[in-house]
Amino acid sequence: MSLMETSSLRASSFDLAISNYVLMDLPDIQSALDGLFATLRPGGIAIAIFSHPCFPKDNTTTVDEDPRSSVVTYRWTHSYFESRAHLAAARGRFTSAFPTYHRALSDDFGAFRTAGVQVTDCEEPRLQPERFHLARDEYRKRRSRLQKPPNFPF
What we know:
With about 150 residues, the protein is of the alpha+beta class. Helices cover about 20% and strands about 20% of the residues. It has one domain (about 5-145). The longest helix is centred in the N-terminal third of the chain and has 10 residues, at about 30-40.
């Protein structure tokens, strides 16, 4: 049974769909995308916002304590290309543990293609120096000395 068969939403009834940090936490992204895109009219637009999967979602991130450093270290307990569920510990506003689902970015994009969707843009926003004051303390520490994004050799 598809999502559309169990939904009260009519097929091809929306011009715009926005998913804000939802798709990344669903165990079955394919069914969700199939249902989401079935509700869009031809030519409709979907905006999907989610955390980049290259950053582990558990406590494997360390930040260099030197406030002049921009170094952050990520340690993986499994292969980046291995899709898997993870029970994240309670933190911040979350008062109990909650499931998250890691998939490689190519798996996420593949799910969009399988749903019959053409991805026209992928943007990775960068925090600009004039907005540093809005970031959490650890981010401000490691980025405070940078006036522009670092140049990467790739």
